[in-house]
Amino acid sequence: MEALKLSGLSSNLHIADSRTPAGFPSPAADYQEEIDLSKLLHPDPGATFIVRVKGDSMADANIPDGSLAIVDRSIRPSTGDIIAGTLDGDFTVKRLVKAGRNWVLHPENPFYKPIVITEETDFQAWGVITAVIMDMRK
């Protein structure tokens, strides 16, 4: 996982006023509002960064290999959040779950096993993943 700097997100994009079905668009949907991607993806510049995800352990959470995950360090991780952090010196992205007295890092791919965080585990949660950007052409 490589950390990327958020910069140059000053563009506003138009967004349709209604939810768009995955079929044909409504001809009545001619009103568009603007959204500011920098505010949406980068709400706290001092606490937000991007990591490029490597591997397929989070594929079932729609975080495929090569996607960009927006990480907000200002959010305190809680059970059910998908987090970015370090595990025994390596970067990781996993779902954080409280199981009894333990915290567990759950992959979102049945080919991987959950990792129980113990007192001996070198683990640090860096922040909560708030959005994912992926190239749909791959």
Overall description:
The structure is a single chain. The chain contains one helix and ten strands; from the N terminus they run βββαβββββββ. It is mostly beta strands. It has a domain at 48-133: Umud Fragment, subunit A (Ribbon). The strands form two sheets. An eight-stranded antiparallel beta sheet has the order 1-4-5-10-6-7-8-9, with no helix packed on it. A hairpin with a 2-residue loop joins strand 6 (82-87) and strand 7 (90-99). The protein is globular, with a radius of gyration of 17 Å. The relative contact order is 0.20.
Task: Please describe the topology of this protein.
Blueprint: E1 2-4, E2 12-16, E3 32-36, H1 37-41, E4 48-52, E5 68-72, E6 82-87, E7 90-99, E8 102-106, E9 115-117, E10 123-133
Antiparallel strand pairs: 1-4, 2-3, 4-5, 5-10, 6-7, 6-10, 7-8, 8-9
